[in-house]
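S.,

Sequence below, as promised.
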Amino acid sequence: MQNILMLSAHSVQVDRRILAEANALAAAGYEVDLVSVPAEYAEACLDDRVRVTMPDDGRGFGSSGDDVSVKVRTKRIVKRLPGPLFSLAKAAWYRFGGGPAGEHRRFFTTVAPSGPFDFIHCHDLDVLPSAVELKKRWSGAKLVYDCHELFPYQFTDLSMEKYWRRLEQQHIGHADLIITVNESIATHMAEDYGITKPAVIYNSYGVDGEGVDSISRRAFREHFDIVGEGPYVIFQGNQGPNRGLEMLVDAFELLDGVASLLFLGDGVLNEGFRETCRLRGIRNVYFGSPVSQEQLLGYVRHSDLGVIPYQGDTILNNKFCTPNKLFEFIEAGVPICANDLPELRKVIVGSGIGRVYSMNSAHEIAAGVRHCLYGIEEGAFSSENLESARDQYGWGGQASRLIELYGELRDHF
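The prediction came back faster than expected:
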């Protein structure tokens, strides 16, 4: 039986792609060790055969608890610096301390099991240098680099883009297999670094839709404290910048009496949105706290339409995105209204499960939502199309492709 060391630095919550891949590999007969920085994950969604190492005592980030405390205090002080000084301090940390990639390398090389391992599977660029370092420990170990996104191109700060692109260029040649989440990102990486085009494993839901917790209509309405009637348009996940969410709120002010917007989750913009709605008297926008992975589809299924207004004009990673919510909508059988971005168009329009529009203003988003809701009334997005999309993009096919790639990698070397 061959052994896989899987590395994750997802510090808030272990991404469901990681859990799904670990499950698929364990089910295929591999022994899987998942090593992660401290983070939450749904234990019910992880195969019992996957061994998890997740120290919560600061090991790898300092030689003692005192060192960890000093780092925490230092970060707090630095974050209070005026803008220019903060940028200078951050640049110095990246240049001389390796940034988060250097910190992760110290962590993973300290806490990784003794092995040996046949494969090292690292998730995202910030873990790649750690994986390259660990590959040296075990002769013949093969490195799988799993890119969840176009990592260097998710920043508005050009210096961050240059830092991460230089790091990726430096280490990507050590990977024996590169996989990513869609064709546009795979093509860009091949052209950017002059490498063989990475394989694609879509970021599917990764949990059998029939196995998630059932949520009643009453519980759904109570979760958001809904007092108005539908139709309900849902956005779930992180409420952060560069996602068009400010315009989305404005759009639903225009759609008062037409539809209600449900925010499921949290994020840095959440409190601001709540205050905006209170001050402007926007009555058709509701907020629900984050829910577990097992419950998520149970809530999404009660919605009439899913919305993805991500903006792709300034951040390349957004332009080529296929976010988790795209596949959550597909698994839940909910039609989708989205910004007209290349991969979103390919999946949504190509499958006949929704429509894409220019979403560069609140008025454009409002018009798109109206048109989609009209399409639902007219039966534009058939249950057959929704079921076909679930078959095409569901985790079963993605898992099979992952196992196939591992088999090819094992047999090739």
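The radius of gyration is 22 Å.

Coffee later?
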